[in-house]
Amino acid sequence: MTRIYIQEVATRDGFQMEDRFVPTDDKIALLDQLSDSGIDKIEVTSFVSPKAIPNLRDAEEVMNGIKRKEDVIYTTLIPNVRGAERAAACQADEVNLVASVSETHNRKNVRRTVDRSFASFKEIADYLSGTGIAINGTLATTFGCPFEGAIDENRVLELAEAYLELGAVGITLADTTGMATPNQVHGLCEKVRDRWPDLPVTLHFHNTRGMGLANVIEGIRAGVSRYDASLGGLGGCPFAPGATGNICTEDLVHMLAFMGYDVNADLDKLINLSKHLETLVGHEVPGQVIKAGKISDLHEQPAFSK
Amino acid sequence: MTRIYIQEVATRDGFQMEDRFVPTDDKIALLDQLSDSGIDKIEVTSFVSPKAIPNLRDAEEVMNGIKRKEDVIYTTLIPNVRGAERAAACQADEVNLVASVSETHNRKNVRRTVDRSFASFKEIADYLSGTGIAINGTLATTFGCPFEGAIDENRVLELAEAYLELGAVGITLADTTGMATPNQVHGLCEKVRDRWPDLPVTLHFHNTRGMGLANVIEGIRAGVSRYDASLGGLGGCPFAPGATGNICTEDLVHMLAFMGYDVNADLDKLINLSKHLETLVGHEVPGQVIKAGKISDLHEQPAFSK
């Protein structure tokens, strides 16, 4: 049985764009329950400016308030050295850096060129050197850019190389706005796996156009075993109002578990947490298993007259 | 480029369970537009008792009212010889028979044993013999039953054989309540293709638990090239309120077209039709491409200051 690693991003990628600020204590309680659910990695929060993302203004309180478990990796997104300092002060296991493969998207997202992003990452890597905090490098818009369209796969490989040169121990290929198609995922993942067979690669999919789980299947087929997902399918894309967000953690775990993959996460706990999440954010979430039930939730057999 | 055939079921599988009766003229106009969209087959309606399914009480008017195109197959669901007579009177190209692989589901759905269903199908086949009307045999709950759970694959093959013996020219494997997993689809389709390499096989998926398009990918990989889908993702399952319905036609065509498959259907026409469908049924539909836009719908590049 192939082990597939589930990495939760709801409290970062999901909460950051909610209308409602989820109270700090509720965030901490949710994160503690996620830690208890068998999730392999949790992107807890983002050490960005509170002005840029007010919903995550409690990053320190959250990181310091959660009960950390030995076998869970607690990662945080950071945009600059100031973020690295904050993550280090909170003893994050890992920091996640993000640059877009698309120049236009990078400038739109972080107001700098991709080169300047990587120059800043070098400073971050220097700062973190010797601290024991791991670096993961995320490449946003890997499978397509909502402004530029198609992305050159060679540029993806170049930027992955740039991350590795500055000491990243893992790479995330992110389909930021849900543009990846299954064959594209397969093709690029094979190239990445051929070049760096032992590199921990994460795939980060959005289900914007319904292809999220199909893309996971193709990623697994190409040998990738780490997947970001968001409880309830929280998250989304500012350019596609009404569109669904990240692939849904419990829907992903449900599919993989019933396919016979070895996932550590406890499906029933995740389903309960996702229902609870709806009360935290104040709206329905796009996850489907919480509505339909698991495949194994059978209905009582009707009585028949003879 | 592999040709994939798209078969529309919204006006039957979708409309049958809507709260609102879609007026006959609106049905006819929608079907005419679907005919013009390049869809390969349309399941127009169901010749069942108007008491059983009031929403389809206008089956004759609809079948006689539409403009039929040479290269589209117009099929209708029929439950018995009376249905066959009605379909024949309307000169349907094909009738679609439905039995469940699960005894319990068949009794729940059509109030008879599977054996009795097939005895009735024999009468239908005899009646239709020489009329030139083709028979397609659908196996409901092929991938799982909401009452019985797992389904024996040998039983699926037996019942497919039973359909072929009475003269069916095609078989549909239907995942009636969205229980199929991608590896299961692959495995069963390979068995069916090994046994009947030249048989036109259709896969009918529901997206109840989010796996619909992933299942399509695995079906294609196993050599199946015909897929039922419902405009807007209309349809659903009475046992899973709030769950999504059939896989969505325009989301399916969107994925396949961007993967490079040869689909005859016109994606832009389907997207427009799906938006129109929302006004016909009076609620949002689950389709995602109508919300998010196509992958190729790029946003204007923002202007940057130097």
3D structure, described in words:
Chain A is of the alpha/beta class and 306 residues long. Chain A has one domain (3-292): TIM Barrel. Chain A has helices at 10-14, 24-35, 59-65, 81-89, 103-110, 114-128, 153-165, 182-195, 212-221, 249-258, 267-281, 289-292; strands at residues 3-8, 41-46, 73-77, 94-100, 134-140, 170-175, 201-205, 226-229, 262-263. Chain A has an eight-stranded parallel beta barrel with strand order 1-2-3-4-5-6-7-8, surrounded by eight helices. In chain A, strand 6 (170-175), helix 8 (182-195) and strand 7 (201-205) form a beta-alpha-beta unit. In chain A, helix 2 packs across helix 3 (59-65). Chain A is globular, with a radius of gyration of 19 Å.
Provide a concise account of the structure shown.
Chain A is α/β, with parallel strands linked by helices and 306 residues long.
Characteristics:
TIM Barrel, homodimer, 12 helices, alpha/beta, 306 residues, metal-binding (chains A, B)
| The CATH fourth-level homologous superfamily of chain A | Aldolase class I
User: Can you identify the CATH class of chain A?
Assistant: Alpha Beta
Strand content of chain A: 15-25%
Which structural class best describes the helix and strand composition of chain A? Answer: alpha/beta
Distance between the termini of chain A: 45 Å
